[in-house]
Amino acid sequence: MGILQIFTLLGALGMFLYGMNLMSSGLQKAAGERLRSFLSAMTSNPFKGVMTGLGITSIIQSSSATTVMVVSFVNAGLLTLAQAIGVIMGANIGTTVTAWMVSWLGFKADISILAVPLMLFGFLFSNSKKDQRKNIGELIVGFSLLFLGLSFMKDSVPDLRETPQVLDFVSTWSSHGFGSVLLFLAFGTILTLVLQSSSATMAITLIMLSMGWIPFNMACAMVLGENIGTTITANIAASVGNTQAKRAAMSHTIFNVFGVAWALILYKPFLQLVGVITENLFGLPNPAAEGFVVTDSTSPEGTAALYGLSMLHTLFNLTNTLLLVWFTKWIAQAVSWIIRVPKNHEKEVFRLKYISAGPLGTPELSVEQAFNEVIHFARISKKGAAYAQNAINEANSDKFEEYREKLVKYEEISDRIEYEIAAFLNEVSTEEISESTSIKIKSMYKIISELESLGDSGETISRILSRMNIHKKRFDADAIKNLNAMAEAVADAYDVMIENLIAAHKGELINISNAYASEDRLNSLRNDFRDAVIEKIDNDGKNYQASVYFMDIINAFERMGDFMINVSQDLERGFINK
Length: 578
What we know:
The protein is mainly alpha-helical and 578 residues long. The protein has three domains: 1-32 and 101-156, no CATH class; 45-95 and 159-342, no CATH class; 362-575, Phosphate transport system protein phou homolog 2, domain 2 (Methane Monooxygenase Hydroxylase, Chain G, domain 1, Up-down Bundle). It has 24 helices and no strands.
């Protein structure tokens, strides 16, 4: 095997992987926000979870993309751990569609002869001004590259029958009984870890089987190994996620490892079952029969081997799901026991929830992820405002100091969240994005800036109160009552802002009249309290300095209202379809 042939083989593998990623990306973009709503609409019914995972993976042709998506939503609290386990089970079944597609179109129908003509249509679609057509063009180009890569891989793989010495060497690997099964299982696992694609490893296994490199039973062992290796993607995604995300990824590993364990225990009868089903369903030779040998991929034996391997992949995941779907709650309990909640749990409460598991496969889904984080940011900001009201009402100096420290902490949290969301959006912006997505991203930049300013306002109120305490000034009962009225109006304005954020996220925001009403209420209260203070100073100037502090806090609350109306206006500009 020459150097050029080796590089051709590696290049063909790269083309296959790139085509798979491009096709998956195009499908995800074409599906758009419906994928997210499809997942978020999940119920606690594990069977619906299985069907959801199966459906999404069948559509986007990537179980890795589905599991990373699931981990992200668990990380966000959008899916419970039990729901996620069901979706992951379904994703494992859905990925078997790729194996059938490759074994039929790539080996039997030889769709590679149509791949180059299809490129023309992909190019024409990709030059369209409409985003949907561009996405379809990307899908067509990815589909073509996938099967071109597969064709080149088949052509560049040497025929070992022409080199008996090499064939004998490879044959020795499969002559150690059950030890060979474990050896090929490990090989399938490692290859999937390296390639980060069980579909690519499956394609390589099908090629090795069709070329007569390895017998059917060893190819089956590789497929089992691939099911273990594919779990690494979700674990990598969850490594920077919260505890629930790590548990979801761990459940994927437990699911597949358990499946491989029972498949190894029942290895021979399981393969015989696969062989009988293949023989009776397709009218082909039994690939698990004694003395079965593939001499030509186009012969009935070659077809039987390819279909048999795809059947094993499907039957393995179907059986494993049917066995374990009844024990979803117990799996959730097991991973909860393995991965414990950190002792310092408060740190986890204030960390990013929606985007800490890393970007998703496409800008459209990533924007959805970021918008969830913006809503989470708004809710955290409201908690900070509540501490400001507590600080106003607290007469005990030690208790007040606790609230002051919390307000300082929330200001730091706001800075950090703004920075991390902005960094995430910067990364998304480097991808090819539609005009509507670009407008949404620009609006989100402005929104997180306003939310950060809200965090600053809470800390500003704490500093005003600290200066008042230093000068040993106190608010009278009327001032406290008025400040509480202003704080409650701010809390109501927060509710309106969060309500508008959620409505915009769902595509249901029609207008922001509720936000203008909240802003008018805050302005009206500010004017009434200011007039009352001025009149009080004119009549009795004894508490002049306390009145100044009072108006400083009232103005700080009113500015918070300004920041919140700005958020709703940004939503109006970026998320209302006009």
